[in-house]
Amino acid sequence: MSTMQFSLLMAFMLTIMGLSLHRTHLVSALLCIEGMMLALFTTFTMIFSTLQISTLATIPIMLLTFSACEAGTGLALLVATSRTHGNDHLKNLSLLQC
């Protein structure tokens, strides 16, 4: 395993650990998810450029597009929850409340 692959794997694992351990604010959860998507995008780009398969070249761009859609949706949810609840603490969000 090369150092680039190891660093991308560690970046992905650190964002998963950050998502699972530090779940106090919605902003931190969104940043961890964006970090995971960035690590996946970089990994896919590195793998597909190494393999030089032209049919798989669109996969990283599609992943980047889905990541942008996810970021927009996450920010919209952040604005909606901060308007209704007054803050972005995840412990205040419950499906049982109106």
Automatic annotation (TrEMBL):
GO molecular function: NADH dehydrogenase (ubiquinone) activity; oxidoreductase activity, acting on NAD(P)H
Transmembrane spans: 6-22, 29-51, 57-80
One Gene Ontology cellular component: NADH dehydrogenase complex
Top EC class for this record: translocase
Reactions that this protein is recorded to catalyse: a ubiquinone + NADH + 5 H(+)(in) = a ubiquinol + NAD(+) + 4 H(+)(out)
Keyword annotations from UniProtKB, A to Z: Electron transport, Membrane, Mitochondrion, Mitochondrion inner membrane, NAD, Respiratory chain, Translocase, Transmembrane, Transmembrane helix, Transport, Ubiquinone
BP terms from Gene Ontology: ATP synthesis coupled electron transport
Compartments, record wording: Mitochondrion inner membrane; Mitochondrion membrane
Membrane topology recorded in Swiss-Prot or TrEMBL: Multi-pass membrane protein
Pfam entry (one): Oxidored_q2
Keyword Transcription belongs to the record: no
EC number: 7.1.1.2
Family that this chain belongs to: Belongs to the complex I subunit 4L family.
Function: Core subunit of the mitochondrial membrane respiratory chain NADH dehydrogenase (Complex I) which catalyzes electron transfer from NADH through the respiratory chain, using ubiquinone as an electron acceptor. Part of the enzyme membrane arm which is embedded in the lipid bilayer and involved in proton translocation.
Name the UniProt record assigns to this protein: NADH-ubiquinone oxidoreductase chain 4L
Organism: Amblyrhynchus cristatus (Galapagos marine iguana)
Lineage: Eukaryota, Metazoa, Chordata, Craniata, Vertebrata
Gene behind the chain: ND4L
